[in-house]
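Lecture 7 notes: from sequence to structure.

We start with a single chain of 344 residues. Read the sequence below before looking at the structure.
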Amino acid sequence: MAVVLPGHLRSTFKEVRSLIVKDKNFPEARRVLAGVPDGELYAPYHVAMAAIARSESDSAVAMAHLEKALSLTPEDIRLLSRIGKLRLQEGNKVLAQECANRALLQKPNKKSDVTALASFLQQLGDPDNSAKVLREAVLQNPNDIKLRRMLAISQLQLGQLDECERNLNNCLRLDPKNHYSQILLGEILIAQGNKVRGLAIIRSADNDECPSKLKERLSIDAAECYIDLGEYNAAKDELTRVQSSNSPRFNFCWGKIQYQDKDYELALTSLMAASKSIGTDGDSTDASIVDPSSITKEDQQSRCEQLIHDLGGKLEKLKTTTGYGSSQSGVDQSTIFNDNDDEF
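Now the structure, written as tokens:
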């Protein structure tokens, strides 16, 4: 059973949380924690130590602290969800599923519990249970944009595109300038074949108020749409805005543009970079990696065509499992759109 947290320590752990989440000052957080009497008796101490360990890329120590925290608060939905996500990162889906099963036995009452559990279930590939948890939460909080948007993501994973679109339109009725909902709605419309309207919505989201972390996503979304419409110069302009990107989608789009320009050597270089990125997720393409300058132009063209075919299918598969438009392979929508404090 967890030891009740004394009142005087609440402010201490609040300070530690701020140091970790806002300031990213992990050494100072460690120093403050070292001064907590009998810190190991309290779950927040172990959660904080786990965040510090993760900042040092020490996943084993982080997991040990989280497991200790869970032993002190065995019904903590956020902890179960956090541990489950780490198990997924380790590639251990069996243990991740065990965490999900334990979490689903609890009834999430707080919004933070709902969003943490739903985000975890989406990453686990369980949109049915994620949607169930979120529908109940939305019924109780019909004007909560974040909950509605997360429900839309689950509906997207379930292939319920019409329901997803309605939910996102509801989000925009509540907040017409909500960039996250605008972008996802635009991507859904494009996926449904309504490219012109989807592109218009995506472009309307790209303004000075748009968070910088979404700028790359917007440009690549627009570039993909322009390529599908055969407007390669417009696509090139979009990608030029985010030249520092090295995501699979970025390289795939550049490769297709360079292929259209008949610059097969550069096209093959870009397409192989996209292939390599996707391959790190355990599903590489069939085409082998070669030095483009060492083969003939005809071979370059042939390999480009093979990669465009293979990568198109693999990126589409990633969209159905991680959500439309994520700019990095394997990055899920819940992470991009919901800002859960997974590190603490």
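The CA atoms of residues 239 and 331 lie 20 Å apart. Keep this in mind for problem set 3.
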